Fold this protein.
Amino acid sequence: MRLDFKQLVALAAVLRTGSFETAAAELCLTSSALSQRIRQLESRVGAVLIVRSKPCVATPEGHRVHRYAQEIALQEHEMLSGLDIAADRSLVPVSIALNPDSMVTWFLSALDGVPGYLYTLKIDNSESGAGMLKKGSVVAAVTFEEKGIQGCDFYPLGTVRYLPVARQDFYDRWFADGLTAKAFSQAPALTFNQYDRLQIRLVELITGQNITPPTHFMADARALGEAAAAGLGWVMLPHMLAAPLLADGSVINMSDAHFIDSDLNWQVSRASREVLAPLTCSIRKTAEQWLLKKAE
């Protein structure tokens, strides 16, 4: 079964923008013409591909077709780039999943100097990023997965060391008797979202008890460090964000002996391997400058 390329482009545009109207304007189509292309594609594959919501999202079948659409677009871009004739130089959409800490520290630097792409960066905890790669909603991801995902190339990037930090007066108030189970059960922590269990893991590492500390939730990786510096709570910060705050005395390291190391990896669909090779090279080089070497 052959799928129409224009219909695949229409699907990718709707899922990237989340709107039929915005996608139609981007493709210089009327909304009805775009809708017709989507309906024809759905009829061709025999499944509903898009949930018509706000924003529009892919069904499980839609994720698979969307990944195929991205891979076809990347391969076309690679072919045109290699021709010595005037060719369409439009940017190729590339969807990438990554964790919030990478986004606010090193990842954007890796995109510098890698032209030709229009990025959709899906920011979530890296476990979710691996899930997005598995179901095909992205073609590449920064993950915490220890093993490669089927159908993807796997590149170890390095280690992020998460350090427990707090402002000095906050530490003195709540941890006067040390890092005890009682103190952790009372002292406010700072947490990215409900999937962030770094603080809970640190408490269990130190006390041996399963304690969920009271916590502020704020889904902003950089703001977590700023909140710790403002005395709102204690938090596990990646070493890249903790270093400047420790250096200027905004926070202290609550325990030099206790930290959590997480290994980051770059995984990319093999079907997109060649056209994304420059990006993969830049990501690996940039990560080497920012991340720690993985402990043997």
Summary: The chain has a mean pLDDT of 89.
